[in-house]
Amino acid sequence: MEEELLVPNEEYLKSGIHIGTKFKTKYMSNFIYKTRSDGLSVLNVQQIDARIKTMINFMSQYAPEEIMVVARRENGWKAVKLLGQLTGMKVYTGRYPPGILTNIQLKKFTEIKLIVVTDPWPDRNAVQDAIKMGIPVIALCDTNNQANNLDLVVPCNNKGKKSLGLLFWLITKGYMEARGLIQKGGFSHTIDDFAAEE
């Protein structure tokens, strides 16, 4: 029997979470369901869903102040900021200040135990810092991403506002329920609250 998805399949498809790029790396080919006639890769929705569940379980083992979420690209800012407000996780949108995980002399020096990046390429400075400090890295990866040095890859369209909105809505809801911050089914925010305006 098919395991139940976190949201109905139509919701995933509507957000475009499964639409990849025309370029695919060897590592991400495991998650690709097919290539469309226009050359775009299509990710497997079941695998996306399974990895989001794994991500929520992994994150819920950490207190909010032990987690940092990084989003260099503007499309993820709204979703990541709302995640931070609701959960208390540390978030960095825009330029990540180099050395904040490695240099104790810095005013902004931060100690964390887990880092989440919305795209390992623009967020590579954060990934490098985390590797130096032995901090596990969860990364949202599109079909064109490399997966070196990542502890958990979550395949998804990591560039679309709707896709990132849905993803961070699921993570926020799942994390808050798993940590007992809200009752199951007691999450009042909508996916649209997380998806940046077009």
Describe the overall structure:
- The protein is an alpha/beta fold and 198 residues long.
- It has a single domain, classed as Glucose-6-phosphate isomerase like protein, domain 1 (Rossmann fold, 3-Layer(aba) Sandwich).
- Helix content is 33%, strand content 15%.
- The strands form two sheets. It has a five-stranded parallel sheet with strand order 4-3-5-6-7, with helices on both faces. A two-stranded antiparallel sheet has the order 1-2.
- The longest helix has 18 residues.
- The radius of gyration is 16 Å and the shape is globular.
Which CATH top level class fits? Answer: Alpha Beta
CATH superfamily: Glucose-6-phosphate isomerase like protein, domain 1
Order of helices and strands: HEEHEHEEHEEHH
> Multimeric state of these chains?
single chain
Level of helix content? 25-40%
Overall strand count: 7
Short description:
The protein contains 6 helices and 7 strands.
Search tags:
198 residues; alpha/beta; Rossmann fold; 5-stranded parallel beta sheet; 15% strand
Task: Tell me the layout of helices and strands.
Layout lengths: L8 H7 L16 E4 L5 E3 L1 H15 L7 E5 L5 H11 L2 E4 L20 E4 L6 H10 L3 E5 L10 E4 L5 H18 L12 H4 L4
Parallel strand pairs: 3-4, 3-5, 5-6, 6-7
Antiparallel strand pairs: 1-2
